[in-house]
Design goal:
The complex is a heterodimer. Chain A is mainly α. Chain A is built from 13 helices and two strands. The longest helix of chain A has about 40 residues. Classes of the chains: A mainly alpha, B mainly alpha.
């Protein structure tokens, strides 16, 4: 338990650091949302400075940070100038869509990568393994931007998939089952793009760490004892190879979040990505900070989950933690 | 294939690819910003050797495109008028490799313009724009990697060599940077820099932003190397003879980190080229009329372009050979350092 507590504390510290860092950067930024207004002759100088005062942009940085932290504690994440409302609700809706995409993609990518990697490791150096290795290498050299664009072109040309958005027009009038189906159809393309971008790295790592374990004496002994190969691979070998893979899981959440940002913009999926892009172009400061922080929270949650998994899977960590 | 030979092979491929891009002015038939407003979105033209009357010609030629009768987006070749291709011909002026002003081009035509990869909305030659765009994207990647690796080496060496509170502080910050999803980090950094700037300033901004993002991983790797290197016998001996910190770092420790830095460079450069592409694609990077692989793709965000003009997707393919080359180089470098480790082991631990 001590171990998990330490990891949680570490996560909180990390979040705090990121919020401080983004806030500092934002203070260094030249220009803000009200600069454009100042150029407009119809808006008086007093009105602009009154607005600045209203949003406390004229206060010193530490006070602004304290105010903002207070707002975060209330789930508001500051105030959006462009949308004229608190950032929190704005982010939640978008974050839900982003999560829908990334969680599905993460699960799917790992569900595919594990058997593929193990299967490949079991045939290390043979033809099926080589074919799979070349396939992952080919996927690795196609950047995710190109992958997403290619899929979009495919959708446009064939008309098999919708080319963007979360749901169809008239979604409200559908029955629950049809709603689910509609949502699933819209998710197919972005999820494929994300999975294909993440898959090669995952498969390669699974293959490498399982292949390393397969040489271990205990597995040869187990094979000699007549334990069936499938059980050997998927239970004993996987268990022994799990440690680096679980750490990789934490990292894969970060990669998928980054990938999702891009895929969302390309496929016009109403997630955090398009919102972040819009707010950068509009200099909507708190939305940017909120978006970055929120993605960080997801990442930290993913890493904490990986830590819990590690604690559960690796007896060495359990005993080391309880011995202290 | 042996590792050194593999390494040389990938290096040759990469150098050749970079030379093509560096000499873009020579390979590109036209100036990348020269417009021909009367010929927007022309499909790619094919050079021929055999004409419509089945006569063979030694000199390649092409037929200019004209609108098909009764259509306004279908083109056909105007077989009445063959335009010959000239090689090593004189065309638009450009500085060769950015230095020598010249007019020499690999190929060109007199009169009608040839669009080997089609033309864009303003009738600009897509091939020339891809070649020149490569200069921007690759340079951004190379400079970004240079900044990142210098930062990473500096921070890694400081942390590893001096240890103590400096190590602790730097590695905590590195953890912070490592944890952030890189695209979000890129966005956040870009968000707080000015938006409306000249193309050159925008390019420099992009390079700096990209360079600032990735230092954490090389820094950690360098730190690891330095930590083990500074306890090696020959370095202790040098210190015993009174070598200064600076001398030790420069003469003995920096060379130890070279292999890690090289491998990291091979991994980082393509990533950074992609980062530039992503930023420019989203409109946060290099703006028009300068072309880069990212902003060439940005037109695909318009649905009509995506549906109707397939040759506008070609810039996406330009990056693939570079990715392949760098991937091969990185894996060859990794294999080489692994091979060295095994060799060392077999010399010092005969077991």
């Amino acid at each position: 338990m001590r171990y998990l507590l330490r990891r949680t504390l570490h996560a909180v510290f990390l979040l705090f650091g990121v919020s401080l860092l983004t806030f500092l950067f934002s203070a260094l930024a030249p220009g803000n949302y009200f600069d454009e207004m100042r150029l407009n002759p119809q808006i008086s100088r007093e009105a602009v400075s009154a607005l600045r005062a209203q949003y406390q942009l004229d206060r010193p940085l530490p006070i602004r940070y304290a105010h903002w932290l207070n707002a975060v504690a209330h789930g508001e994440f500051g105030f959006s100038f462009a949308y004229n409302g608190p950032v929190g609700p704005l982010l939640w809706v978008r974050a839900r869509n982003t999560l829908l995409l990334t969680v599905t993609a993460t699960l799917l990518a790992w569900l595919l990568a594990l058997p593929l990697g193990i299967w490949s490791a079991a045939r290390f150096g043979q033809i099926p393994d080589r074919v799979l290795s070349s396939a992952t290498a080919a996927l690795l050299v196609i950047p995710d931007l190109v992958l997403a664009l290619g899929l979009l072109i495919l959708a446009v040309r064939t008309g098999w998939f919708p080319t963007g958005g979360l749901v169809s027009v008239g979604f409200e009038s559908l029955s629950p089952l049809q709603k689910l189906r509609d949502l699933a159809i819209h998710m197919i393309l972005p999820v494929i793009a994300l999975v294909l971008a993440a898959l090669p790295t995952l498969v390669r790592h699974v293959r490498a760490s399982v292949a390393e374990v397969l040489d271990a004496p205990f597995l040869r002994a187990a094979l000699g004892h007549g334990i069936p190969q499938r059980k050997l691979l998927y239970v004993y070998a996987l268990r022994a190879a799990a440690n680096p893979l679980i750490s990789l899981f934490g990292f894969s959440v970060g990669t998928l979040l980054s990938g999702s940002l891009l895929v969302e913009v390309v496929m016009s999926w109403p997630g955090l990505g398009p919102l972040l892009l819009e707010s950068i172009l509009a200099r909507d400061l708190y939305v940017v900070i909120g978006g970055v922080l929120l993605s960080m929270i997801f990442l930290v949650c993913g890493n904490l989950f990986a830590d819990v998994l590690l604690y559960w899977a690796d007896p060495r960590i359990r005993t080391a933690a309880s011995a202290k | 294939m042996t590792v050194p030979r593999k390494l040389t092979r990938w290096l040759i491929v990469l150098i050749a690819l970079h030379c093509v891009i560096a000499a873009a002015g020579f390979f590109a038939p036209y100036d990348p910003v020269e417009q021909d407003r009367g010929r927007p979105y022309l499909p790619p033209m094919r050079p021929h050797l055999i004409d419509a009357q089945s006569h063979f010609h030694l000199r390649p030629f092409f037929y200019p495109l004209r609108l098909r009768q009764g259509s306004f987006d279908q083109f056909e070749e105007d077989t009445a008028k063959a335009v010959p291709l000239h090689f090593f011909t004189r065309g638009a002026a450009y500085p060769f490799l950015g230095l020598v002003p010249t007019r020499l081009h690999l190929f060109g035509t007199t009169g009608d313009r040839i669009y080997l990869l089609g033309s864009d909305a303003y009738g600009r030659d897509q091939l020339s724009r891809i070649l020149y765009g490569g200069q921007v994207s690759l340079l951004a990647g190379l400079l970004g990697a240079g900044i990142t690796l210098s930062l990473g080496a500096l921070i890694g060496i400081t942390a590893g060599y001096y240890a103590g509170w400096r190590d602790e502080l730097l590695m905590r910050i590195a953890e912070l940077f490592l944890a952030l999803p890189w695209l979000y980090l890129l966005f956040a950094l870009r968000a707080f820099l000015p938006l409306a700037v000249s193309p050159l300033e925008a390019f420099l901004l992009v390079v700096i932003v990209i360079g600032m993002v990735g230092w954490a991983r090389p820094a950690r790797l360098v730190r690891g190397v330095v930590l083990s290197a500074k306890e090696r016998d020959f370095i202790r001996a040098a210190r015993g003879f009174g070598a200064s910190d600076f001398y030790l770092l420069r003469r003995h420790i920096l060379p130890e980190t070279a292999s890690v830095l090289l491998t990291q460079a091979a991994i980082l450069i393509p990533q950074f080229v992609l980062a530039e592409m992503t930023l420019s694609f989203l409109g946060l990077g290099v703006p028009e009329p300068m072309s880069s692989w990212g902003n060439l793709l940005a037109t695909l965000q318009q649905y009509s372009v995506l549906v109707s003009y397939w040759w506008m997707c070609l810039p996406a393919l330009a990056i693939v050979p570079f990715f392949l080359g760098y991937l091969g180089l990185a894996s060859a470098l990794q294999q080489r350092s692994a091979a060295y480790k095994i060799e060392e082991k077999s010399i010092w631990n005969p077991s």
